[in-house]
Specification:
Largest sheet: 7 strands, mixed
Distance between the termini: 34 Å
Order of helices and strands: HEEHEHEHEHEEH
Number of domains: 1
Number of helices: 6
Oligomer: single chain
Strand content: 15-25%
């Protein structure tokens, strides 16, 4: 995994304080904590319905003292923003070439020496979709890591870490259980999120 802002002690500490202050002033509540057993884990990022999700997610990651990497569409890594996005923990994803993404993610998580949380939006897009992509599930299963059900609820201004979920291998049943957790949560553009 590449070096990120979250590995920079002084900057990380300053941004942790600034993130907590900003979220509090904006009326957001940060909830939960990362259990020790999830120092390596896959975080679901849902609902994902707006460009605003990324800055709020990064602030929550600072506030929760995470070591996150996140997947984003390749277009946001173009030009001068590419190095900045990578420094913020971004990993560019080309949807048309994502066939080896699961295997590469599994290998990177297994090889990582220290704590690392890979954030994956299950919808794979900010637009409305009825089908969740299962990459997050197979990455966690392949790396033998727990899934952390991270969330952002714009209605109640709550962002945080929910319970751990351990894949059983029954994909349909596990997805149904995971979606049930997310069903009451609302994204910024609530009509675009479907956890049914």
């Amino acid at each position: 995994m590449h070096h990120t802002i979250f590995d920079t002690p002084l900057v990380n500490t300053l941004l942790c304080g600034a993130s907590i202050a900003f979220l509090k002033l904006a009326g957001w509540r940060v909830e939960g904590r990362l259990p020790a057993e999830a120092h390596k884990s896959v975080l679901i990022a849902a609902p994902h319905t707006s460009n605003w999700d990324l800055p709020y997610t990064l602030m929550a990651a600072f506030a929760l003292r995470l070591h996150p990497y996140w997947m984003g569409k390749a277009s946001i890594f173009r030009g001068p923003f590419g190095p900045v996005m990578r420094w913020l923990g971004g990993i560019p994803v080309r949807r048309e070439q994502s066939n080896n993404l699961v295997a590469a993610s599994v290998a990177a998580l297994v090889a990582a020496d220290g704590p690392v949380q890979l954030i994956v939006p299950p919808e794979g897009t900010r637009g409305r979709t009825r089908e969740w992509k299962t990459g997050f599930y197979f990455i966690a299963q392949g790396a033998k890591l727990p899934i952390v059900m991270a969330y952002m609820d714009y209605t109640h201004k709550r962002v945080g870490l929910g319970p751990l979920f351990h894949p059983s291998g029954d994909v349909a049943a596990d997805l149904a259980a995971i979606k049930a957790f997310y069903a009451p949560l609302r994204g910024k553009n609530a009509a675009q999120f479907d956890a049914g």
